[in-house]
Amino acid sequence: MWRNQDTKIAFAAGGVITVLAAVLAFFVSSAAGFAALCTGIALCIVFVYASWQRGRAIARLSDKIDKVLYSDTLVALDDSKEGDLAVLESEIRKMSIRIREQAHALEKEKLFLRDAIADISHQIRTPLTSVNLLVSRLRRGGIDEGEMKRHLHSIETNMNHIEWLVSSLLKMSKIDSGTAGFRAEPVNLADLVERAVEPLLISMELHEQLFDYSSSGKEHFLGDINWTEEAVGNILKNCMEHTPDGGHIEVCGSENALYTELVICDNGPGFSEKDLPHLFERFYKGTNSSSTNSYGIGLALSRMIVVAQNGTIKAENRSSGGARFIIRFYKREKLLK
């Protein structure tokens, strides 16, 4: 209690006032002086007791704050019934809850980062190992021209996979950190689909897959065509890889007063029911995914890009067989009103 400088000053001032009041009262009468002295002493005793009690309460609160900071146990901060200490305890309790929430979130993020780094390391190591084996085979020599071409093609394919993986991870980190820089410009849906499917047309032709896009040609939304091309391209690539030779990939665009919609369908095997809730999670590989070509990143990146542009994306199975992706970009001007 006496460590508080304000308490010392208040007690000293109270003592001086008591003595002065008693002296002045004695000039009136001895009874008045004695009454003033007793009253002053009583007030000082009450002040000392109240300060002592307040000091004990503050000490208890200080001990609890130490436990909150340096212990994992949950500490109750609700001893004070009312007054300034009750308000202070209430605020400290809110702060302690917030600290615990942030600590749990940080721990969860650290675990996710650890698992993500392990997944990335594994997924990069796999094609690198394949490349090293192929390079070692080429160094030994004694292979014909046809086998050499096959090995070189495999090396090129694996290097392209690594390049795509690193590029996708960098894009995801940009979106996570909020530095992606999405533009909000009018994007024509037909132009977007044309740009997204162009790199896949040769592969579709080799597999005799039909591609069909239908819309009025006037559908548009506010967004970034370069980022959105990446998202739609990943979904089209997923459909192409799961569509059998001679299959059909259909894309339909539409627009209404609330949103612009892009529906992408294929006639492949569709999704396993247990995969549907996890399709857009990072590093998740579905039941029908290829162990060599699937990294569990493409669909996750697509979802991040769409959501960052005020959109939604959903995957489901078609009643007639195959997969369906539904992408919607909501009208931003509607939300501003």
Question: How is this structure best described in words?
Answer:
This protein has 337 residues and is an alpha+beta fold. It is built from 9 helices and 7 strands; from the N terminus they run ααααβααββαββαββα. The strands form 2 sheets. Strands 2-4-5-7-6 form a 5-stranded mixed beta sheet. It has a two-stranded antiparallel sheet with strand order 1-3. Strand 6 and strand 7 form a beta hairpin. Helix 1 runs antiparallel to helix 2, helix 2 runs parallel beside helix 3 and helix 3 packs antiparallel against helix 4.
Q: What is the share of helical residues?
A: 55-70%
The gyration radius over C-alpha positions equals: 36 Å
The percentage of residues in β strands lies in 5-15%
Give the total of beta strands.
Answer: 7
Overall mean pLDDT stands at 81
Sheet with the most strands: spatial strand order = 2-4-5-7-6
Instruction: Please trace the helix and strand order, writing H or E for each element.
Output: HHHHEHHEEHEEHEEH
Largest sheet, if any?
5 strands, mixed
Structural class: alpha+beta
Shape: elongated
What's the number of helices?
Answer: 9
Identify low-pLDDT runs: none
What is the straight-line distance between the termini?
A: 59 Å
